[in-house]
Amino acid sequence: MSDAAAPAPVSLGAIFRTFLLIGATSFGGGVVAYLREMLVENRRWLDDEEFLSALEISQTLPGLNATNMSIIVGDKLRQGPGALAAFFGMILPGTLVVMVLGILYGEHAHKAAVTGALDGVAAAAVGLLLAVTVQIGRKEIHGVADVLIVLVTCLAVSELHVPLYLALLVIGPVAIWYYRPRAGARRGGR
Predict the structure, then answer these.
(1) Whose CA is closest to 77, among 6, 7, 9, 5?
(2) In terms of Cα–Cα distance, which of 35, 37, 42 is closest to 73?
(3) Which residues, in sequence order, are CB contacts of 114 under 8 Å at separation 6+?
């Protein structure tokens, strides 16, 4: 028997408050950066590998990635009740803000200050998404083949305007084939 006690389970209140804070302080694509910072670096509820796994699962499910991620993490921490606490914490701020902003936008959409503020929020979200992409990319992109797959996907979607689902349906199987297990050979520890 070990003398070390098992860590105390995370309280439902802590889960709710954490996701309430994330939901209240993140915008658009930038939420991934806040999720990583809060869950991996600050709370240490996940390590980078667990975060990436949860993010990948979140992206394959229908719905918002951040909401899916909150449910996955809440479930990991405290099963069903944790998933509910995380879900409601995550959606409450956004729901309230969208309702209020929708009413205000309807009344003031024609003003230049409103347009400028929305442009600023969009720029901040792009910066946050770029930051987390670089953080994750450093750990996951190891060679020329990885870079080429990323570049082809980005060019197909952004420059050629190929729908994302179609790009993934074509490029995904190519990447899976390239990284398939090969008898007698292991490629770079992957």
Answers:
(1) 9
(2) 35
(3) 105, 108
Angstrom distance (rounded) from CA 71 to CA 61: 12
Q: How far apart are CA 172 and CA 167, in angstroms?
A: 8
190 touches 182 (CB < 8 A): no
Q: Which two tokens stand for residue 41?
A: 């670096």
The confidence score (pLDDT) of residue 20 equals: 94
Residue 147 DSSP SS3: helix
Orientation angle between helical segments 48-60 and 112-140, nearest 10 degrees: 120
Q: Which of 69, 49, 50, 47 is nearest to 58 (CA)?
A: 69
Q: DSSP letters along 40-93, please?
A: IIIS-SS-HHHHHHHHHHHHHSSS-HHHHHHHHHHHHHHHHHHHHHHHHHHHHH
The type of residue at 146 is: D
Question: Does the reported pTM lie above 0.70?
Answer: no
Instruction: Give average pLDDT by consecutive 10-residue segment, the chain, 190 residues.
Output: 61 95 79 88 92 92 90 95 96 89 84 85 85 80 88 92 91 90 61
- Phi, psi torsion values for 137, nearest 5 degrees: -60, -40
Amino acid identity of 70? S
The two tokens of residue 185 are 């050979």
Q: What pairs with residue 185 in β-bridges?
A: 182
Report the pLDDT value the prediction gives residue 1, as an integer from 0 to 100: 45
